[in-house]
Every structure is written in structure tokens, then in C-alpha cells.
Write a structure and sequence with these properties.
The structure holds two protein chains of two kinds.
Chain A (H helix, E strand, L loop, with lengths): L7 E5 L4 H14 L6 H14 L3 E3 L2 E2 L2 E3 L7 E10 L9 E9 L5 H13 L3 H9 L3 H9 L7
Parallel strand pairs in A: 1-5, 3-6, 4-6
Antiparallel strand pairs in A: 2-3, 5-6
Helix pairs in contact in A: 1-2
Chain B lengths: L1 E7 L6 H15 L3 E8 L2 E3 L4 H6 L2 E6 L13 E4 L1 H6 L1 H9 L9 H10 L7 H29 L11 H9 L4 H18 L4 H13 L3 H22 L9 H41 L4 H14 L4 H12 L8 H23 L6 H15 L7 H6 L1 H21 L3 E2 L12 E2 L1 H22 L6
Helix pairs in contact in B: 1-4, 6-7, 6-8, 6-15, 8-9, 8-10, 9-10, 9-11, 10-11, 11-13, 12-13, 12-14, 12-17, 13-14, 14-15, 14-17, 14-18, 17-18
The chains are: A alpha/beta, B alpha/beta.
């Protein structure tokens, strides 16, 4: 599955964008989803320089498409309010981090597309914020009609 | 009211779809009909049909990458960046309905505004080059490997008709992939400049470059020439409305191709032939010169234009020194120098990962095989993408390999084959050393002077 409980961290300590990205990348690496972590982080940070992936509503979706990723994944973290240079100027408290290999299958990309669309919906965002544990959050995602699992 | 939109972001994973959702919501909130075409990594979804475009009241382009524009001629088009679409969604619909009407001739403006959104270092010329190169790489890799496979049966096994080696050469060589490579490069440079109508004049221009033996440098000229000619035709030739239909099917292909082709024949045909002749004469005059200097010069020539007039002169000079059964030190130097460019670039992609795009790193893996097989063309994608840095680097490495091969007095008795004919090399351990030194020098120079490239 593209996301699982082990890829969710509701109590992330990082205080900067870079720390959070590294923390989540380590999480993904520990689950065998990334081969070359530095390469992946570089791709993610580079994408951030094009323009911030914090799209407003307190959510950022850093992402990287690189050969360093062995299996597509989605990480989720709740963070202490971080300045992510959001398009709306607000702080970020939810982070979805995405990793996709160069030759990702359409099935995974479609899930990521449907999550991206869902994030524009208020109900979905408040559902994410209300989840109290990793398993609750996982359950919420499974019930959100995203095509996971 | 009916609103259409197209969204596309750099990686095509997330923001393409967010912007689509935002625009859909905004339009529905106002009670308008809406459809959004997404151009993400899944490919083009929800593609707008001509009928829909005809009916639409306004079109929103929230794109950070180039998208086909011609279909929107005559419609109100609002062209913005993806981030802008996400930031101020509410006003988008109103802005779109008040947007100015897009005319096909204004392509330059739309493209220019899209380009401004991009990172500053990504200038137009670079983008066009990379587009051509990315389409060419599979041809170089597939063709080169097919040729290398044919060498397994012997460097000249393909000359025997009806054999597997001959079929492999047929697919990979000048009648197959290597013959297509140059037109593809030129065609997709032109496509990047002038959109779809640029493709045919560009590829035909590339085919002319092949006939003129102008090599990949000729293809670059052909691609840019065709691209800007078509671009100008679209901008300056105005036909009455009733005749506009013949622009894409008749005027652009015919006028674009013929003018590109004729300019190439008249403008670069003679100089290319002259360069080749001059180089031949020059080398003949060098015959008695110092062997090491001759190796150095042959090395520079082999790497300069890879398949162009200078390279061909050096290679012909090398094969001309072959006498049946006897080894030639000049032929050995020519082959060493021809093996170095792909090998040096392959080494650079391993040592300096952050200076090459993902596609180039993949091409780098194949370049090991191509270089080892004396298929110098393996270096062309790199040289075409960044000629001013790559060409000098490979020239220096090849010159060193050529000079060392001469200094070590290595000789070769066959005209081609790379490592498959090392059995025909006299003094082969030192010969390999010469190639290795040239490879390392090329790799290090490229790594040092090339700029960081990231996708």
C-alpha cells in the first residue's frame, strides 16, 4: 500500500521545513521505500525552490520524483506550526510527503492525484486534523474513497 | 456559462490536481459548467474536445509547463501559474471571462508568460535543446546497443547479408536508429520552439543535415532554423479566415520544410564539404609529422563534431592507413580517441551525479557499452545538450588518448570494433591505459566545468 501506519507520525518534533522533510524521509527509508535518501531529499528540496508546496490551509505536500525511490509512498505528519513559505502566508501544521520513482505505475499516481484533489476540501482537511492516532488516521484515509488498499 | 481549464505543474504529481479541483469548485460555486484537463504524470486526462472548446465562454490555463495552445485560438484565455490559481481562486472565473481573446499569432506572448514563471536559468534555447535531446536519447541507446551486439559476432560480421549481425546493424546503424537520431533531434528542437507544426520541417531539416554529413551540429542548426521559420510563418503570414484551414496542412509544412531545407543545402552544404576536404588535405600534409602530435590532432578531430565533417575526415584518414594484414598506429589512435568521449561522459555521470539529468544518467549507463564498442555517437546527447562545455572536454580527453596511443606505439589492423577487436591491437595493455587516461581526464574536466543540473 502506498501509505501505512508506520509512515504516519502525528508527533513530529522538527521545527523547520528541512528537518521535517529529513525526518519523514528517514521514516520512508526505514520502511525500505527509499534507496538513496540524500538524493531523494535533494529532489524534494529542489521542487520546493520552484515554488512552495505549502498550498494554503495549513498543509504542505513536499514531493520528489526520482530514481532514489524504490516504491511509491505517502508519509503523513502533524507538525508544530512551521513557516513553509506558504502561498497564503500561513503556517503549516499538516505535511503529506510524497515519493515517486521515475517509472511509477499509473495506479499510484492516480491515488496521489485523488489525495491532492481531496486536500482542497474542507471536510477532508478537518478529518485529518481530528484523527487522534496513526491507526485512526489510517482508517480515515481508507474510508475517504481514495483508491487505497 | 461554460468554463474550461488546463492545469499542469512541474512534477505533475500534486498541484496539477489541486488547481483542477480549485477551479472546478470555484466555477460550480458560481453555477457555471466546468471541465478541467489535467496534464500530470498520469498523462493527459479529461482532454478538452474541439466541440467543448468551441462552446466555452472562457478558458483558464493554470500551467507551469508548455501545453498545446493552438486549439484555443479565438477564445478568451487567461494564462496564469499554478500557484496563482491556488492562491486567488475566487477571482479566477471573473478574470477569465474578461480575458483578452487569444490569437494563434500571439503564441509568443503566452509562451513567454509561461516561461517567466520558470526558474531563471532555464532559458528558451536550453529548453529547446533539452527537448530534442530527451527524444533522441532512446534512439542513441537502442541503436548503439544493437550495433554493439552485432560486433559480438565480429567487427565486420554485419557485412554478411542475412545474418543476425546484419539485422542488428540494420536496426541500429545508419539505415535504422542512427539514421533517425539526427532528424529526431532536429525535429523535436523545432517542436519545442514552434509547437506541433515545427516537427515536420525540423525532421526534414535533420534529414538534410544527414545527407550533408553535417552531423549533430548540423542537426542543431536544422532544428533551430526550422523552429524559428515555422514560428515566423505562424506569426507573420495572415490568411483570410476562409483559407486559415490550409495553414497547418499545407502552408506551414510545405513552406517551412522547403525553406529550411534549401537554406541548409545552400548555407551549410558547401562549407561542410569544404571543411571535410580541407581536413583531408591537412591530414595528408601531416603524414610525415611527429607521431605524437598527429595523434593529438586526430584526437581533437574525432571528438569535435562526432559524425560531422571533421570527425569523418579523421576516421577516413585512419582507415586509409590500413594495409592488409599490417597494423596501423594511426588507426589505433583514431579508435582510442573515438572511444573516449562516451566513456568519459559515462564516468562523469557516475562521479558527478548532480550535474546530469535523470535521462542523462540513464544514457550514461549505455554510454559505457557504446564507448567500449567505439560508437562515439554515445556522447552526442550530452554534447547536444551542453555543447560549449562537453565538446572541449571530450576533445581534450580524446587528444590525450590519441597522443598516448601513438607514444605507446600501439597499432590496430582493423577499422572498427572497440574492445571486440582488442585482439588485433599490438601493445594492448598500454593501449588500454591510453584510453583509460583519456577517459578519466574527460570525466574530470566535465565534472568540473559543468553546471549543476536538476529536474
Amino acid at each position: 500500500m502506498i501509505i501505512e501506519e508506520t509512515l504516519i507520525d502525528l508527533e513530529t518534533d522538527g521545527t523547520t521545513k528541512e528537518e521535517v522533510i529529513r525526518h519523514l524521509a528517514e521514516l520512508a527509508q526505514s520502511q525500505g521505500r527509499i534507496q538513496d535518501i540524500e538524493d531523494y531529499i535533494k529532489a524534494v528540496l529542489h521542487r520546493e525552490t520552484e515554488y512552495s508546496t505549502a498550498m494554503g490551509f495549513g498543509i504542505a505536500i513536499p514531493h520528489g520524483k526520482t530514481a532514489a525511490v524504490t516504491e511509491p509512498f505517502l508519509c503523513f505528519a502533524k507538525v508544530r506550526s512551521i513557516d513553509w513559505k506558504a502561498l497564503d502566508g500561513g503556517l503549516v501544521d499538516l505535511v503529506f510527503m510524497i515519493g515517486v520513482p521515475e517509472n511509477a505505475g499509473n495506479e499510484h499516481l492516480k491515488i496521489l492525484a485523488s489525495i491532492s484533489r481531496k486536500l482542497m476540501k474542507e471536510e477532508f482537511r478537518s478529518g485529518l486534523r481530528e484523527a487522534g492516532s496513526s491507526s485512526e488516521l489510517m482508517q480515515f484515509l481508507l474510508n475517504s474513497d481514495l483508491g487505497i488498499g | 456559462m461554460k468554463i474550461l481549464a488546463v492545469t499542469a505543474c512541474p512534477t505533475g504529481i500534486a498541484h496539477t490536481y489541486m488547481a483542477a479541483e480549485a477551479i472546478e469548485d470555484a466555477a460550480k460555486k458560481m453555477g457555471y459548467e466546468v471541465k478541467v484537463e489535467t496534464r500530470g504524470s498520469v498523462g493527459v486526462e479529461n482532454e478538452l474536445t474541439d466541440a467543448e472548446i468551441k462552446e466555452a465562454d472562457a478558458i483558464i490555463l493554470a500551467c507551469d509547463t508548455a501545453v498545446p495552445m493552438e486549439r484555443f485560438a479565438g477564445k478568451k484565455v487567461l494564462s496564469i501559474s499554478v500557484s496563482e490559481a491556488l492562491k486567488s481562486t475566487d477571482k479566477l472565473i471573473e478574470r477569465a471571462l474578461n480575458a483578452s481573446v487569444y490569437a494563434a499569432a500571439d503564441l509568443s506572448d503566452a509562451v513567454a508568460s509561461i516561461k517567466e514563471q520558470r526558474a531563471a536559468q532555464r532559458t528558451g534555447v536550453y529548453k529547446h535543446l533539452m527537448n530534442g535531446v530527451s527524444f533522441m536519447i532512446p534512439f542513441v541507446v537502442a541503436g548503439g546497443i544493437a550495433i554493439a551486439l552485432s560486433f559480438i559476432f565480429g567487427y565486420n560480421a554485419f557485412e554478411q547479408e542475412g545474418t543476425l549481425a546484419a539485422y542488428l546493424m540494420g536496426m541500429g546503424g545508419g539505415a535504422g536508429a542512427f539514421g533517425l537520431m539526427i532528424p529526431i533531434l532536429a525535429g523535436y528542437i523545432a517542436y519545442s520552439i514552434a509547437d506541433r507544426p515545427g516537427l515536420a520541417p525540423g525532421m526534414i531539416g535533420g534529414a538534410v543535415a544527414v545527407q550533408l554529413n553535417a552531423g549533430f551540429l548540423g542537426a542543431l542548426v536544422a532544428g533551430f532554423l526550422a523552429g524559428y521559420i515555422v514560428y515566423a510563418i505562424k506569426k507573420y503570414i495572415k490568411l483570410p479566415k476562409t483559407l486559415q484551414g490550409i495553414m497547418p496542412v499545407l502552408i506551414i509544412p510545405v513552406l517551412g520544410s522547403i525553406s529550411t531545407g534549401l537554406i541548409l543545402f545552400y548555407l551549410i552544404g558547401k562549407p561542410v564539404a569544404m571543411i571535410n576536404q580541407t581536413m583531408n588535405d591537412f591530414l595528408t600534409g601531416m603524414s610525415g609529422a611527429n607521431a605524437i602530435i598527429l595523434g593529438l590532432i586526430l584526437g581533437l578531430m574525432m571528438a569535435l563534431d562526432m559524425g560531422g565533417p571533421v570527425n569523418k575526415a579523421a576516421y577516413a584518414f585512419g582507415t586509409g592507413t590500413l594495409a592488409a594484414g599490417a597494423g596501423s598506429s594511426i588507426m589505433a589512435a583514431v579508435m582510442a580517441a573515438g572511444m573516449v568521449p562516451p566513456l568519459g561522459l559515462a564516468l562523469a555521470t557516475v562521479l558527478f551525479k548532480n550535474k546530469f539529468t535523470v535521462a542523462e544518467k540513464e544514457a550514461g549507463k549505455a554510454a559505457w557499452v557504446l564507448g567500449a564498442s567505439f560508437i562515439t555517437e554515445g556522447a552526442i546527447p550530452f554534447a547536444a545538450a551542453d555543447p560549449l562545455r562537453v565538446i572541449p572536454s571530450i576533445m581534450i580527453g580524446s587528444a590525450i588518448a590519441g597522443a598516448l596511443s601513438m607514444a605507446f606505439n600501439a597499432t590496430l589492423s582493423v577499422p572498427h570494433g572497440g574492445i571486440f577487436v582488442f585482439f588485433a591491437v599490438e601493445n594492448w595493455p598500454l593501449y588500454i591505459l591510453a584510453i583509460a587516461i583519456g577517459t578519466v581526464v574527460t570525466g574530470l574536466i566535465i565534472g568540473t566545468i559543468k553546471k549543476k543540473v536538476e529536474e
